[in-house]
Design brief:
about 0% strand
């Protein structure tokens, strides 16, 4: 029973190593390297588009927040704190 287990474990490890070696050899061919470079280029392009989209969204948010400030100060609101109201009555 033990010998059968180790035989199966060794055969599985051998098959796994063979598959991994074949994949590595295919990746290091000129076609494999060009595919990897193309994938990196596409990934960088997609990342750049995401960054530009995020920058545009943030710029829009900042413009929306700051536009009222450019048209003058906002109207003063009534004090909401009780101590502020008490100080105002004392003066």
């Amino acid at each position: 029973m033990i010998r059968g287990f180790w035989f199966v474990a060794g055969a599985g490890a051998g098959i796994y190593a063979t598959v991994r070696a074949r994949r590595l050899a295919e990746a290091l061919t000129p076609e494999g390297l060009s595919d990897r470079v193309a994938g990196l280029r596409l990934g960088a392009q997609l990342f750049g588009e995401e960054v530009r989209t995020g920058m545009a969204e943030k710029e829009t948010q900042l413009r929306d927040r700051l536009t009222p400030a450019l048209h003058g100060p906002p109207a003063l609101a009534a004090p909401t704190d009780i101590t502020d109201a008490a100080e105002r009555d004392l003066t």
